Automatic annotation (TrEMBL):
Name this polypeptide is given: DUF5060 domain-containing protein
Taxonomic placement: Bacteria, Pseudomonadati, Planctomycetota, Phycisphaerae, Phycisphaerales
Signal peptide: 1-24
Pfam families recorded: Collagen_bind_2, DUF5060
Entries under Gene3D superfamilies matching the protein: Glycosidases, Immunoglobulins
Region described as Disordered: 469-488
Organism: Algisphaera agarilytica
Keyword match Signal: yes
C-alpha cells in the first residue's frame, strides 16, 4: 500500500545546550477562514520569551489576552533560539496569509533592529506563492516587521535570493494538522498574536486585535484517555531458542508519530529481563511500533510497543515493564524519571527458552553475540569463536533503497538504489514487505554471503541542516551528507520523531543479513552531518540522545554489529567522549563502539585522548591508498600496540582506503596484500573495502568479487580452517628477514609469516626450541597447504624459509607449527 503522509512536530535545539521545545497542549481550529492564536498560549522552556502583561509601562497599550511575548535572549544571527510551537487544524482548504501583531522596542537603535524572528511550518502543505520555494516555509526563515512606538504588522519574509521581502503564504489542506514554530532572533522583538487568514479575506491590522481567538482542544487529555483504554496485554513473539530474537509486544498507550506527547521522547518503555538460574539480568529499551505491522501497513499510529530481546541462556526468563511518562523521559538515564504510566508500569511475566538451538552456520544465531572481550579481536559469546571481518564498505548509502518507505528519489549525490543486478540472487529465502517489496536488497545480501564475506557497512543517517561555520564559509559546520536520502525520521526536517514503517523495513533487511552471517557496521553519522544534531555545540543534547536511544532500541539487539559514531569525525575529544559515554550507558548489549577519521598520516590527535577508556573499544581506520609504503600495516600496528600498552586493547579495523576518487580500485592486488593481510598481520580485526568515486552509485556488489573471494581464502581457508589463534598472537617483524614480510606469533608453537611481495626470507627462532613444520598457503588461489623447498625448521637458530612452491615473486602465507 502507499506510504501514509507524515505530519511531524519538529522539536528544536539551541546553542550551547539543548532542550525540547514546549509540548503543545492545545490544537487550535480554523473556522470561517480565520485562525487566530495568542502568542502566550504556549510555553517558553528556556525563558527567553518573557510574558509582558497587557498595558505594561514602556510598551504599547492594547495587548490582547494576558499580554504579549517579548524575546529577551541575545541576538542569535542565523540560529533559531527558544522555539515556541503552535498546532492547528484546517477545515477550509486553500491559500492562507500570515500576519503577526508586532512591536519592535528600539531603545535608540536604528529602525531595522529589534524587528524579526524565525518562523517554520511543519505538515502536509505547499507554498501558496510562486515566489516562495516550499523549503523556505519548511525551514527557519526570518520574518520581520512591527512598529517602533505602537503595534504594527509583521508578515514579510527575509530570505535573500529565494523569497526576499515576500509575504508568507501557505497552501493548506482540509482535515490536516500543522505545527507552526516561532523562534527568537532579535532582542526586544514583541509579538501579541498571529492570524492565518484565507485568501477570500483581506485582513487588516485592526483585525489582529478584534478577531476572537480560535477555539482549541487539549490533545494531552485526549491522549491520556486513549492510553487508559488500552489493554496492557503483553504477547511474546518469536522463536524461543537461545540467541533468537524474542519480541515482547505490549498493547500500550495509543498514539502516533506526530502526536503530543511525543511517543519517542515523552514516554519511556523499558523491560528488565532476569534469568534466575544464572543470575543474569538486563534492562532493554523498547520503542513505539505504530500498529505493530508498520512495515506492511505503513501505519503512523497505533498502540503497539515492542522490545527486542536476545536470550543467552535456556530456561525461564522473567520480565518486568517500566513505563514512564514526562518531558524527555525517554533519554533519561535515571531509574525512574517522570511518573509511572498505569496500567503498563510494573507489568510482569515470564517465558521459557528451549535448550535446543536450530540455527546453523553461517546464521549468526548459531554463534551468539559478538562481544568486545578485552582483546584485539571480538569473540562470539555462544560459540567462543573469534572474528576477523571483511566485506564491502561501499556503497555507504546502502539504505537509500528505492523500496523503503519515505526514501526520496532526490538527494545530494549518488543514486537511490534499485539493486537490479541482485534480483537474480533472491531465491525466496527472506521476508519481503508490502506484497513482495525488498527482493532486490535481500538479493544483494545473499550475493555478499555467497562470496563468504561476513560484514556489510552503511550510514544510518546522512541528512543534515545547513549550519554555517563563522570561521570557514567554504565548509559549513553541518550540511547534507553525501547521499542525503537515508534517515530514520518522519521527514528531513524532523529530529525527534521516527518513521515506524521505514525502520521496520530496515529491520527486515538486518534480520536477513544476520541469518546470512553478516556483521552490521552501523555508521551513525558522517563528517558532513555529524554536528547537525543539537547543532554540535559540544557534549550531547536531546536530539542526539533520542537518535541513539531509538537506534539502540530497534537495532542494538542484533548479534554482530558496531556503532560508529561518525565517519571522518569532525568534532573534538570532549564531544567524542560525551557521545561515546552516552552510547555506552544506554546500550544494554554493550556493542562494539568505534569512530572513523580522515586519511591523515598522524591520527594521534583523534585517538590518543581515548586510550585506556572503556567507552571506545576499537577504531575504524581510514588510510591513504594501499601501496608498498605499507601504511595500513603501520597504522594498524601503532594503535594495536598503543592501546595494549594502556591496558585496554582496541579492535583495529581498516574500513576505508584512499585516494578518495579510487579507493581499492587503485589496485585489487594491492588491497589484498596491503589492506587485508597488512591489517591482519599487524594484529588488526579485519577490513572493509571502499570503492572511491563510485561509492554512492555502486549498485552491484560484484564489483568487489575478486577481493572478497581472496579475503575468504585468507579468513576462512587459512586462519579459521587451520585453527590459527590470531587473537592470542602478536606481530614481531624484527625476527623476519624480508623487507616487506610480516610475522605473527603466539610466542610458543604457532607462527605465521606473510611475504607481501614474495622473495626469500629468514626467520630468527633463537628464542624457540624444538622442531617446526613449514607449510605454504596461496593467498591468490586458496586451496590446501603446500610444501616449499624447506619443510621443517629447528628452534634456537636463524633459518631460511626456503623457496615458495611456485611463483616466488607473488605473495605467500607460511604456517609454522611445532611438531
Amino acid at each position: 500500500m502507499p506510504h501514509c503522509p507524515r505530519r511531524s512536530l519538529l522539536l528544536f535545539c539551541v546553542v550551547l545546550f539543548c532542550v525540547p521545545s514546549a509540548l503543545a497542549e492545545k490544537v487550535f481550529e480554523e473556522r470561517g477562514g480565520y485562525l487566530v492564536i495568542e502568542m502566550e498560549s504556549t510555553d517558553s522552556l528556556l525563558g527567553q520569551w518573557k510574558l509582558i502583561p497587557a498595558n505594561a509601562d514602556g510598551y504599547p497599550k492594547g495587548a490582547v489576552g494576558e499580554g504579549h511575548l517579548e524575546y529577551q535572549g541575545p541576538w542569535s544571527g542565523q540560529k533559531a533560539v527558544d522555539p515556541l510551537e503552535y498546532r492547528f487544524t484546517i477545515n477550509k482548504p486553500g491559500r492562507y496569509f500570515l500576519m503577526f501583531r508586532a512591536h519592535k522596542r528600539l531603545l535608540g537603535n536604528p529602525g531595522d533592529k529589534n524587528n524579526d524572528c524565525f518562523v517554520r511550518m511543519e505538515g502536509d502543505f505547499a507554498s501558496g506563492s510562486d515566489e516562495i520555494p516550499l523549503d523556505v516555509l519548511q525551514t527557519d526563515t526570518k520574518l520581520f516587521g512591527g512598529a517602533p512606538e505602537s503595534w504594527g504588522q509583521a508578515r514579510r519574509l527575509d530570505k535573500k535570493k529565494k523569497a526576499h521581502l515576500k509575504e508568507a503564504v501557505y497552501e493548506f489542506k482540509a482535515g490536516e494538522t500543522y505545527t507552526f514554530t516561532v523562534s527568537g532572533r532579535s532582542t526586544r522583538f514583541n509579538l501579541d498574536r498571529m492570524v492565518f487568514f484565507h485568501e477570500s479575506h483581506d485582513a487588516k491590522l485592526k483585525d489582529l486585535q478584534s478577531l476572537p481567538e480560535s477555539s482549541f482542544t487539549n490533545v494531552e487529555a485526549e491522549a491520556a484517555s486513549n492510553a487508559s483504554a488500552s489493554s496492557g496485554e503483553i504477547e511474546v513473539l518469536g522463536d524461543l531458542h537461545p540467541w533468537h530474537k524474542v519480541t515482547l509486544a505490549l498493547d500500550g498507550p495509543a498514539t502516533a508519530e506526530d502526536a503530543t506527547p511525543n511517543p519517542f521522547t515523552d514516554y519511556r518503555f523499558d523491560v528488565t529481563f532476569t534469568h534466575a538460574a544464572s543470575g543474569k539480568t538486563l534492562t532493554v529499551p523498547g520503542f513505539f511500533a505504530a500498529d505493530g505491522d508498520a512495515a506492511n501497513s505503513s501505519a503512523t499510529a497505533g498502540n503497539a510497543w515492542h522490545c527486542h530481546f536476545r536470550p543467552s541462556e535456556p530456561g525461564v526468563w522473567e520480565y518486568e515493564v517500566s513505563f514512564r511518562e514526562g518531558k524527555m523521559v525517554a533519554t533519561s538515564t535515571e531509574r525512574n524519571p517522570g511518573k509511572a504510566l498505569a496500567p503498563y508500569d510494573g507489568l510482569a511475566g515470564s517465558f521459557e527458552i528451549d535448550a535446543d538451538n536450530p540455527a546453523t552456520a553461517p546464521d549468526l544465531r548459531a554463534d551468539g553475540r559478538l562481544r568486545y572481550v578485552g582483546k584485539h579481536h571480538l569473540q562470539f559469546e555462544g560459540s567462543g569463536r573469534y572474528f576477523l571481518k571483511y566485506g564491502p564498505d561501499s556503497p555507504e548509502n546502502f539504505l537509500e533503497y528505492d523500496k523503503f518507505d519515505n526514501t526520496p528519489a532526490k538527494g545530494h549525490k549518488g543514486i537511490r538504489h534499485p539493486f537490479t543486478a541482485h534480483a537474480k540472487h533472491y531465491q525466496g529465502d527472506g521476508q519481503t514487505w508490502q506484497n513482495g517489496k525488498g527482493k532486490n536488497i535481500l538479493g544483494a545480501v545473499n550475493y555478499i554471503e555467497s562470496t563468504r564475506a561476513n560484514s556489510i557497512s552503511m550510514v544510518l543517517n546522512n541528512i543534515g541542516r545547513l549550519v554555517p561555520d563563522p570561521k570557514n564559509d567554504k565548509r559549513p559546520l553541518s550540511g547534507p551528507g553525501d547521499g542525503d536520502r537515508a534517515f530514520p525520521y518522519t521527514s528531513k526536517q524532523e529530529r525527534l520523531r521516527f518513521d515506524c514503517s521505514k525502520l521496520d523495513q530496515w529491520e527486515i533487511v538486518f534480520d536477513h543479513a544476520e541469518r546470512k552471517g553478516l556483521h552490521l557496521h552501523f555508521k551513525l553519522a558522517e563528517i558532513e552531518n555529524a554536528r547537525d544534531l543539537d547543532f554540535g555545540n559540544g557534549g550531547i543534547g536531546d536530539e542526539r540522545k533520542t537518535y541513539y536511544r531509538e537506534m539502540v532500541a530497534r537495532f542494538g539487539h542484533h548479534l554482530a554489529l558496531n556503532w560508529n559514531i561518525s565517519e571522518e569525525i569532525p568534532v573534538g575529544a570532549g564531544t567524542r567522549k560525551a557521545w561515546l559515554s552516552y552510547l555506552e550507558e544506554i546500550d544494554p548489549w554493550q556493542n562494539h563502539r568505534v569512530f572513523h577519521t580522515g586519511p591523515s598520516k598522524d591520527k594521534s590527535n583523534f585517538y590518543k585522548p581515548h586510550l585506556g577508556e572503556s567507552s571506545l573499544t576499537g577504531i575504524s581506520l581510514q588510510t591513504p591508498e594501499a601501496t608498498s609504503t605499507q601504511n595500513v600495516f603501520n597504522e594498524t600496528k601503532i594503535w594495536v600496540d598503543r592501546s595494549a600498552a594502556k591496558g585496554h586493547p582496541w579492535v583495529v579495523a581498516c574500513d576505508e582506503q584512499g585516494p578518495g576518487n579510487k579507493g581499492v580500485n587503485a589496485g585489487f592486488d594491492l588491497s589484498r596484500k596491503y589492506v587485508l593481510w597488512g591489517n591482519i598481520m599487524a594484529g588488526g580485526g579485519g577490513a572493509e573495502y571502499y570503492s572511491g568515486g563510485s561509492d554512492l552509485k555502486l549498485d552491484d556488489y560484484a564489483h568487489f568479487h575478486d577481493l572478497l573471494i581472496w579475503s575468504g581464502y585468507a579468513v576462512h581457508d587459512f586462519f579459521y580452517a587451520h585453527d590459527i589463534p590470531f587473537w592470542d598472537m602478536h606481530n614481531d617483524d624484527s625476527l623476519i628477514g624480508n623487507k616487506l614480510g610480516h610475522y605473527l606469533t603466539n610466542g610458543s608453537d604457532i607462527l605465521v609469516v606473510y611475504l607481501t611481495e614474495g622473495g626469500d626470507a629468514t626467520l630468527d627462532l633463537s628464542a624457540y626450541s624444538g622442531t617446526f613444520d613449514v607449510k605454504w598457503f596461496d593467498p591468490r588461489n586458496g586451496g590446501d597447504l603446500q610444501d616449499g623447498s624447506v619443510t621443517s625448521l629447528t628452534g634456537g637458530e636463524k633459518a631460511s624459509l626456503g623457496k615458495a612452491p611456485s611463483k616466488s615473486d607473488q605473495d605467500w602465507a607460511i604456517l609454522i607449527t611445532a611438531k
